[in-house]
Amino acid sequence: LSAMGEPSMDPTLAADSTAQQDSLFSMTDVFLISLITGLFTYWFFFRKKKEEVPELPKMQTVAAPVRDSSFIEKMKKTGRNIVVFYGSQTGTAEEFANRLAKDAHRYGLRGMAADPEEYDLSDLSRLSEIDKSLAVFCMATYGEGDPTDNAQDFYDWLQEADADLSGLRFAVFGLGNKTYEHFNAMGKYVDKRLEELGAQRIFELGLGDDDGNLEEDFITWREQFWPAVCEHFGVEATGEESSIRQYELVVHTDVNMNKVYTGEMGRLKSYENQKPPFDAKNPFLAQVTENRKLNEGGERHLMHLELDISNSKIRYESGDHVAVYPANDSSLVNQIGEILGTDLDTVMSLNNLDEESNKKHPFPCPTSYRTALTYYLDITNPPRTNVLYELAQYASDSGEQERLRKMASSAAEGKELYLSWVVEARRNILAILQDMPSLRPPIDHLCELLPRLQARYYSIASSSKVHPNSIHICAVTVEYETKTGRLNKGVATSWLRSKVPGQQGSSSLVPMYVRKSQFRLPFKPSTPVIMIGPGTGIAPFLGFIQERAWLKQQGKEVGETVLYYGCRHEREDYLYREELARFQKEGVLTQLNVAFSRDQAEKVYVQHLLKKNKENVWKLVNEGMAHIYVCGDARNMARDVQNTFYEIVSEFGNMSQPQAVDYVKKLMTKGRYSLDVWS
Q1: CATH 2.40.10.270 is the classification of domain 328-454
Q2: Annotated active-site residue in 69, 153, 230, 678
Q3: Which residues contact 623 (CB under 8 A, 6 or more apart)?
Q4: CATH architecture, range 71-233
Q5: What is the pTM of this model?
Q6: Predicted pLDDT at 240
């Protein structure tokens, strides 16, 4: 049995085995109990932490900026009921917004101007929480129908928003230029889109045209806008316009000069201690390494400048724009100081009387009057009517005072006088002070009223593939005689002309930054390009041709590169003649068509050469899928070139005029017809 069954166990071994089993069981129990206790303890503390999270002070600080970015909260806190948002690239829309916000007090209302970049615009749906509330939008259109930089986020939000704005009351004034293809596109879009989202328009869309008289367009719209607001809210004007100072003057007699701004755009001492990234508020001080005259004769001065961007980490693409911050002519600044009997080296601050305003000063403060008039204020453009109105009180001669008030009024006679005496005569503030001997305003009020001096944009005339450490500019010096016999000079071009390469100090430095553009070469190098750029409009095409030459050197297949260039006289202002001839010889520039407009009795322009080569142009566009680029004058050249393309498309594509127009518009939509134009 035993052989068939389990072997018998020794009794002592059996006892040991039982003891071991008892011991093992108790150890397992201990282990399991410890494990459960540990897990429970971990869960208990972990759960407590989760519960305590909302009470941590850290969470409260995270929420604060959201409240700060609410214009609704700010309006409630400061008792405002009208908010005027501005989309501004050159400062004009911001100026108009400030004027409208200031107007509000005449009707027992309180307004504030606001930069859409600083606020959460989804709060528009909450504006109805404020009694007699209204949102006004002064929207400039930039480039080819684009929003301005500070309105880009607002534009993106409008496109994507599914908000209910049924409680919002609004009005829009657009700032545009009729010489451009997409006239006032941004103003029109904002007006249309707000209505689509359910908002109530309380006054019709205003369309300002900078090619005509933008100031008059604004005044005409404004004088009809306020009666509409009064009617809507059942309020009345409380009186005539009154001069209300926005800033108070503080003169610094004992100040640390290290705390005084000397021309910086943002951070104090930013020009002494340069830190990337560089942009509009933090420009890079580039050294001018070359400044040469391009033309061989004629009255004009056409110039080629090279800016050194080594060690700046600035990157650019062919077709981008370089923005430069110029300085006003010191003789103009000195003359203003002399006429007003002011010590221009007085250090002062202009502090906003509205403590809740995001804009504490009209320009960087503390600074001197000299610095403000040289680097921060526009003293060369004809002043707008609101400036004349505010200055009128300082004219001791009643006739001069009345004349200033009349020009600032909305009466037809006043508008006509402003147009002829200020705009058409190109009278700047110095000329007005000279021609009105009794007008002697305090310099601090003048500094408060003058608009900011803006950056000037130039199409970059180089390729970063060939010139990674330098940016090239091609420009013509602006100089003309006014109807009053004065010689007016362009601020930026005269200032650039005076730059001396290699010299120490500010005489060779240019504060600059790069603005990205949509003006781009085709993605495939093999795609043909047709470039049309007379005069300084050749600038971006130098970059394009340099890049196509570089691509060819890299062994890439490069498509046809066709240039239509124009100038007045072959022997006077044929810009970059040698460079273009070299590119043609190397086979990079496959066609070089040059129109010399004044070398013969009948004027010949680039559009005439396009017509002459119309068959080849159509073949490149229709079969070669060529990209077309136009750069230069918007008012005449760009329009004439576009009309020529309509004719070519109509003739060779067997299309009616409307069909041909539609064809060219589709090329634009697809990015095959690009414009980089100015008026």
Answers
A1: no
A2: 678
A3: none
A4: 3-Layer(aba) Sandwich (3.40)
A5: 0.86
A6: 60
pLDDT tens per residue across span 506-558: 889 999 999 999 999 999 999 999 999 999 999 999 999 999 999 999 999 99
Q: Which of 322, 325, 95, 379 is nearest to 210 (CA)?
A: 95
Residue ranges of the chain that CATH labels 2.40.30.10: 273-326+455-517
Active site (annotated) includes residue 242: no
pLDDT at 130 over 70: yes
Convert the pLDDT of each residue in 349-359 to its tens digit: 999 998 888 88
pLDDT of residue 32: 53
Tokens representing 101 are 């916000």
Q: What is the Cα gyration radius of the chain?
A: 34
Helix (H, G, I), strand (E, B) or coil at 301: coil
| Marked catalytic residue, from 631, 633, 650, 674 | 631
Q: Do you know the residue count of the chain?
A: 679
Q: Which two tokens stand for residue 530?
A: 């047709």
Region label for 632, one of left (φ > 0), alpha (ψ between -120 and 50) or beta (otherwise): left
Q: CA-to-CA distance for 244 and 444, rounded, in angstroms?
A: 14
Averaged pLDDT of the chain = 89
> What single string gives the DSSP state of each residue in 403-455?
HHHHHHSSSHHHHHHHIIIIIITT--HHHHHHH-TTB---HHHHHHHSPBPPP
Written as one string, the DSSP assignment of 142-195 is ETTTEEPGGGHHHHHHHHH-----TT-EEEEEEEE-TTSTTTTHHHHHHHHHHH
- Say whether 126 sits in a helix, a strand or coil: helix
Distance CA 267, CA 513 (A): 15
**Interatomic CA distance for residues 530 and 557, integer angstroms:** 17
Assign 484 to helix, strand or coil: coil
**Paired strand residues for 480:** 488
89 Ramachandran zone, left/alpha/beta (phi>0; psi -120 to 50): alpha
Domain range 529-677, CATH architecture:
3-Layer(aba) Sandwich (3.40)
Among 197, 36, 49, which residue's Cα sits nearest to residue 127? 197
Of 459, 463, 464, 674, the active-site residue reads: 459
159 burial class (0-12, 13-18, 19+ CB within 10 angstroms)? exposed
Catalytic, 631? Answer: yes
**What whole-number percentage of the chain has pLDDT above 70?**
89
pLDDT in the model for residue 105: 87
CATH code given to domain 273-326+455-517: 2.40.30.10
Average pLDDT over residues 564-577: 95
Cα distance between residue 214 and residue 220, in whole Å: 10
CATH 1.20.990.10 residue ranges for the chain: 328-454
- Return the number of other C-beta atoms located less than 10 Å from residue 259's C-beta: 11
